[in-house]
């Protein structure tokens, strides 16, 4: 087949204080028109550097390409070597013929412009259209990536959207000019399973219709099985193995590829087990000992609203019903997972519990203490017992502080450690999450996305809290590190009696981690119960739809039909609107379903 992109003997280096560092070494692969090549490997293996090198974006971070070629065939049939092209030619290619979806949507969007204007700007930069025509096309693109109320979203700023919605905006920007090659760097990381299935189907359809090729970078092997034609496995900047997707999954040749595939969480692997299960312990048959459940956190009738204001006088005209009469409890040493589509209120529920967002009404009780009644100083003291791991690790870390200062900061603030013992404690923490002591002097931008998330996990563990709200805590991690972190969280729970409110869209990881599961839809819990009951016998139609959308890490079972086109209704209601109180039916022991 003709080669649309041909990467030959690519080498990318960065200058560091200790000398040149080779991030990509002698890498070669090719992509044909309409083909999807998946680039997989652990965090820090050079996947993202490879992707950015294609558009010469590594130069902005101090990277150089001392050797190798990146040949690309343009729309007019002319060839260009992107590794040695002048800036003028690169600017005409970027965003038009080659588009890129970056890993972290918040850093890809300009916070001072509306999301609609940012999509329209891409269209105007490469095509001779009016502002009005660009705006119409931008609204249509927002609609195509399944964001509700596209006209209203067009005028919103990035901070007003959920993480999943921001990622869909970035995808809309990348697709704006119908590129010949789409480079997707973890494009579905922040998306829930239903939207992920729709986005994968969308880009696959566009690929067939327009002959668009894809370089798909991901750590989700289920997504690889769903979308890829060929797979390139990377480790330490070098290619380990390359093969068509079916033989690679069926008969991987290299030990490293076998390790990656063995680390993939598979939905259904926990059948027959009641509690969480570490990776590598599937063969154990003994059930966890039954124990009395001692409540640690009690949430009752939690309501959180966000005002919608309009006009010059900023009149309060409506409310976003983000969390609507949510009730649940978490026992000591227990994990309750909160799942649902992006925008359903999962993250807002977690932040409301910690009072990072102020609830309107309800009660949140931690060990008998009403958190909503505490003043500022008492709440600060109580926060030693409850920590959060945020969804976006780059935004959660201070770019001016080193890794050591980030992890040590909670200990210093609360006066728990100092001097050499402080460093010893920080070193022990980072080692437990898979980092090394010599990385402690680096700044956040010097880490990969997965490494930054591990830093955030180490920081959350530093105060030895009783409750951790993990908001997509492992979504940015590759499968092998994800398995290690899930094992770590389970081990810490067993050793220290930690409790987790585990917010995630990865249903296979949720199945692995959870004692109990709560499914949210439109700000309300629609089903809650033991993990085995919710996954093994889902009663609510929405729960069944979520489970059916999970990609299977098996190319032989690739989904051929389009997933159901779901779209969340608007959560905005006029001031004074009161929804009927939720009524739940008991369908099994501790298993409740919202009555329709």
UniProtKB/TrEMBL annotation:
Gene Ontology terms: cellular component: plasma membrane
Keyword Transmembrane: no
InterPro entries (UniProt xref): AAA+_ATPase (IPR003593), ABC_transp_ATP-bind (IPR050319), ABC_transporter-like_ATP-bd (IPR003439), ABC_transporter-like_CS (IPR017871), Oligopep_ABC_C (IPR013563), P-loop_NTPase (IPR027417)
Family in the record: Belongs to the ABC transporter superfamily. Glutathione importer (TC 3.A.1.5.11) family.
Keywords: ATP-binding, Cell inner membrane, Cell membrane, Hydrolase, Membrane, Nucleotide-binding, Repeat, Translocase, Transport
Function: Part of the ABC transporter complex GsiABCD involved in glutathione import. Responsible for energy coupling to the transport system.
Catalytic activity line of the entry: glutathione(out) + ATP + H2O = glutathione(in) + ADP + phosphate + H(+)
GO biological process: peptide transport; transmembrane transport
GO molecular function per UniProt: ATP binding; ATP hydrolysis activity
Subunit: The complex is composed of two ATP-binding proteins (GsiA), two transmembrane proteins (GsiC and GsiD) and a solute-binding protein (GsiB).
EC number: 7.4.2.10
Keyword Repeat: yes
Compartment(s) where it occurs, according to its Swiss-Prot or TrEMBL record: Cell inner membrane
Pfam families: ABC_tran (PF00005), oligo_HPY (PF08352)
Protein name, as recorded: Glutathione import ATP-binding protein GsiA
Recorded topology in the membrane: Peripheral membrane protein
């Amino acid at each position: 087949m003709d080669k649309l992109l041909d990467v030959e003997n690519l080498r990318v280096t960065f200058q560091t204080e200790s000398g040149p560092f080779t991030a990509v070494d002698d890498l070669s692969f090719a992509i044909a028109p309409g083909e999807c090549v998946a680039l997989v490997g652990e965090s820090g293996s050079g996947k993202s550097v490879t992707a950015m090198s294609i558009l010469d974006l590594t130069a902005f971070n101090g990277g150089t390409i001392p050797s190798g070629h990146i040949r690309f065939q343009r729309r007019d049939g002319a060839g260009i070597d992107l590794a040695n092209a002048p800036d003028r030619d690169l600017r005409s290619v970027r965003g038009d013929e080659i588009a890129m979806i970056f890993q972290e949507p918040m850093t890809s969007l300009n916070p001072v412009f509306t999301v609609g204007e940012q999509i329209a700007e891409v269209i105007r930069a490469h095509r001779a259209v009016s502002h009005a025509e660009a705006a119409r096309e931008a609204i249509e693109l927002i609609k195509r990536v399944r964001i509700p109320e596209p006209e209203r979203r067009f005028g919103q700023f990035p901070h007003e959207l959920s993480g999943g919605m921001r990622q869909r905006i970035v995808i809309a920007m990348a697709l704006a000019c119908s590129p010949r090659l789409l480079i997707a760097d973890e494009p579905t990381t922040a998306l829930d399973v239903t939207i992920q299935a729709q986005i994968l189907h969308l880009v696959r359809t566009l690929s067939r219709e327009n002959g668009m090729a894809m370089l798909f970078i991901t750590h989700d092997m289920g997504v690889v099985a769903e979308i890829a034609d060929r797979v390139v496995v990377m480790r330490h900047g070098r290619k380990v193995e390359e093969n068509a997707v079916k033989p690679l999954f069926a008969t991987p040749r290299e030990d490293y590829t076998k390790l990656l595939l063995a680390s993939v969480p598979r939905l259904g692997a926990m059948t027959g087990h009641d509690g969480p299960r570490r990776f590598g312990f599937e063969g154990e048959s003994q059930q966890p000992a039954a124990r009395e459940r001692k409540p640690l956190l009690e949430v009752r009738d939690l309501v959180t609203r966000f005002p919608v204001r309009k006009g010059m006088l900023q009149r309060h005209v409506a409310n976003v019903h983000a969390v609507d009469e949510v009730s649940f409890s978490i026992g000591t040493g227990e994990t309750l997972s909160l799942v649902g589509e992006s925008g359903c209120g999962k993250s807002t529920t977690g932040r409301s519990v910690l009072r990072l967002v102020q609830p309107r009404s309800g009660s949140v009780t931690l060990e008998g203490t009403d958190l909503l009644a505490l003043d500022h100083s008492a709440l600060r003291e109580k926060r030693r017992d409850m920590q959060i791991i945020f969804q976006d690790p780059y935004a959660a870390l201070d770019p001016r502080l080193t890794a050591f200062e980030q992890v040590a900061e909670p200990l210093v603030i609360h006066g728990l450690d100092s001097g050499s013992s402080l460093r010893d404690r920080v070193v022990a923490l980072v080692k437990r999450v898979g980092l090394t002591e010599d990385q402690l002097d680096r700044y956040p931008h010097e880490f990969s996305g997965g490494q930054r998330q591990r830093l955030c996990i180490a920081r959350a563990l530093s105060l030895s809290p009783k409750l951790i709200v993990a908001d997509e805590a492992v979504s940015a991690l590759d499968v092998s590190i994800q398995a290690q972190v899930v094992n770590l969280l389970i081990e810490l729970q067993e050793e220290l009696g930690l409790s987790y409110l585990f917010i995630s869209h990865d249903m296979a990881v949720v199945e692995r981690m959870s004692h109990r599961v709560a499914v949210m839809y439109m700000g309300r819990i629609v089903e809650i119960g033991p993990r085995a009951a919710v996954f093994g016998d889902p009663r609510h139609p929405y729960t069944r739809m979520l489970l059916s959308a999970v990609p299977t890490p098996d190319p032989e079972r690739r989904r051929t039909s389009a997933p159901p086109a779901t779209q969340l209704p608007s959560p905005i209601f006029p001031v004074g609107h009161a929804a009927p109180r939720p009524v739940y039916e008991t369908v099994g022991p501790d298993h409740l379903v919202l009555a329709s």
